[in-house]
User: What shape does this take?
Amino acid sequence: MKIKSESKLAIFDTFKTKWSSLTGEANRQRAIITILSSNANPAERTRTGISQRIAKRQGITWKNLYSGIFRDLDEVLLPMEIAEEDGRLPLKRGPKALQEKGIPYYHLTKKGVLVALAINDDKNREKLLKEFFSMAEPAEKEFEAILTNLSKTSPIFTDSIFQKYVKAFCDNKINELLPLDLSKLKDIADESLIIQKEILSAFVKLPKQEKEDAVKFLDKIT
Assistant: This one.
């Protein structure tokens, strides 16, 4: 199978010596995507606005972040069609040409919403799921009901599915994120998914008392 060239999306990148710690680039791209997936107003979705929101949260000067935000948008998120221009805000000051063109602000594409589902917390999950499936192709709709239900009953498991799917793309294990095809995960050796499937398949076959005993056991160890 032909694999695409290495993805620049770095949202899962960690330090080589600290594999549990995300890199600065990973955290920055995650922050940009999170802001664009929120209800931020247009001014907060410009390069400057994004830099200021992240800087405020980190307690640093926004100008120190601007070049990184500019690079992430223009070299990664826009070319990869994860984000796109959503409009332009008029300028009252500055060069005339810039005043006429205005300042661009951005929003997530359908692909970007899918990526956001892999990094957002449960506060935004329902909104993102609805947004994604409102743009879904007929073939993608087969996942809508089960994922919507699982997001309410098993939110951590649902998040892990999106994380594994998007990470597989970032690791060049699947060629494209769209159209959404979770069956691609079958081709990726993921022990945690295999274990979860084994437990669920066995659990539904257990008699009532053994199911209760299994739940009690899991309660003791988790």
Notes: Residues 1-5 have pLDDT under 50 and may be disordered. The chain is about 55% helix and 5% strand.
